[in-house]
Amino acid sequence: MIRLGIIGTGSMADVHAEAFDQIEGVQCTACCDLDLERASLFAKKFKIPNVYSDSSELINDDKIDAVSIVTSDRSHSPIALEALSKRLHVFCEKPLATSVADADRMVNAAHEAGVIHMVNFSYRRSSALLAAKEMVESGEIGRLLHVEAHYLQSWLVSKAWGDWREDDTWLWRLSTNHGSGGVLGDIGVHMLDLVTYCAGNVDWLRCDLRTFNKAQGNQIGEYELDANDSAVLTLSFQNGALGTLSMSRWATGHLNSIGVSLHGDKGAIRIDLDRSYETLECCIGEDVDEAIWRATEFEPAPSNFERFVHSIQTGVPEEPGFDRGAYVQKLLDSAHRSDAKKEPIQLNS
User: Can you identify the CATH homologous superfamily of domain 127-300?
Assistant: First the structure.
């Protein structure tokens, strides 16, 4: 039995606890949060026997085999590094870190420890995405030429998920002082993973970030609302394809819309994760002339939680590992540099 400790008990931790509870061979035996009362309520909800307010105490619990890190972005690296020093398996929320240097340290530590490591790019559970990658790599749509992707939310406009002005769950995501990387670090990180997973590595990118006024003085209580709200990127891929990527929390009419389209000189494929994780639409062969799209359904793919547990059980690493997280971190850092300099950034790999 794999004994798992969950570090961080905010709203996303519920997703982790519920997912691991459904997997055979793993048991959540400890949890931790700086807010001990919140951690205690979380433990009661999920019947977790051991509760901590200090992550070091949980990590040094000799009855823990693995940890799931569900804390603010900037604390991912120090917590993961300490866990890896104890040779614990580590499952980490995205983004892996807040800088390339920290991400690289995490990769090196994970390799040195010889343990299973995974970053939660959660949309990897889309079987349609896996099929899209295979079709691009096999040349079924021909030479890849154009990529378009978006991730659109509207919780700054809509109250479908509650009122962000009154809930710390949302307010911290708007404040860099509270560890937020803005829309780019929160949901853009998913799109950079998805797009490069299908289309390949990036040669250069250009990024524009915007932060819009949301309150008097752009501040609510202790939260300075300075994190980016919208982002637009242009990507030039190493295979010669050109891509555009957009994301926003101001996209009125979109609760959580995620789409990827890949266009080649022999056909095209598209995924709408807002509708289905298992449906891939294709326009190929004779359908190209009439622009006819046909849908194909695939069996569900395993979640990252399932992959992580399976990897520990078999000793065989599965993706997306920390190496992948570090590459995406390089894209994130380059995007921020591009926005600051108002110019494209060349990548060296």
Answer: Dihydrodipicolinate Reductase; domain 2 (3.30.360.10)
Instruction: Give one DSSP letter per residue of 108-155, joined into a string.
Output: HHHHHHT--EEEE-GGGG-HHHHHHHHHHHHTTT-SEEEEEEEEEE-T
Entry pTM:
0.94
SS3 assignment, position 262: strand
Model confidence band, residue 349 (pLDDT cutoffs 50, 70, 90): low
Domain boundaries, the chain: 2-122+306-319, 127-300
For tokens 């343990």, what's the residue? Answer: 115
Residues 6+ apart with CB under 8 A from 312: 2, 65, 66, 89, 116
Q: Give me the half-sphere count of Cα atoms (radius 13 Å) on the Cβ side of residue 227.
A: 23
Q: Is the pLDDT of residue 347 over 70?
A: yes
β-sheet bridge partners, residue 297: 279
Cis peptide before 320 (omega within 30 of 0): yes
Could you tell me which CATH number the domain at 2-122+306-319 has? 3.40.50.720
Residues in Cβ contact with 191 at an 8 Å cutoff, skipping those fewer than 6 apart: 149, 150, 151, 245, 247, 258, 260
Which tens digit of pLDDT belongs to each residue from 101-138? 999 999 999 999 999 999 999 999 999 999 999 999 99
> Which of 257, 17, 271, 16 has its CA nearest to residue 160?
257
Neighbours of 145 (CB within 10 A): 17
